Amino acid sequence: MEWIxxxxxxxxxxxxxxxxxTTSLAKPRIWLFKTEPAVFSIQDLAxxxxxxxxxxxxxxxxxxxxxxxxxxxGDLVLIHHSNADPPGIAGTARVVxxxxxxxxxxxxxxxxxxxxxxxxxxxxIAVDIRLESIFPxxxxxxxxxxxxxxxxxxxxxxxxxxxIQPVTGPEWAxxxxxxxPKRRG
Length: 185
Description:
Blueprint: E1 30-35, H1 42-47, E2 52-55, H2 61-69, E3 76-81, E4 88-101, E5 125-140, H3 141-146, E6 164-167, H4 169-179
Parallel strand pairs: 1-3
Antiparallel strand pairs: 1-6, 2-5, 3-4, 4-5
């Protein structure tokens, strides 16, 4: 049986759901997390203790809801460097801790501090991720756009700016093939 992400299943109205649905029997889902490499790069993740860090500072309600409700331990992550030249996918990670209150929201010295967020009712959520791989070369946005089979990828849609985005299994497989050096035969 082939796995089809729940968010890719057409709804009763014929449109696709925008966000994954959580099921306890679901296989690991796949996400794309955006980061600015000048702030936190995949190399910073590689240099973190146990190559693990908390993914904090998400300050968009839709992305927050995804972290809180849908991102689970074991899910796969593509790490995308935005504001790079060119922007692109730099590697992969895996979620090792599901959503919990984002500690940066409570720290007045942190740039992501939110005085309205309360520990008893947190506004913002973080997850922990562990590095899986760094690509030999990032897969740049122009390369991704040139691949016709990725035409429906959320990242490549006009106006798509969310920092946490779903990725389909077939998209993951294409990106995985793109990152591997081409064999000469």
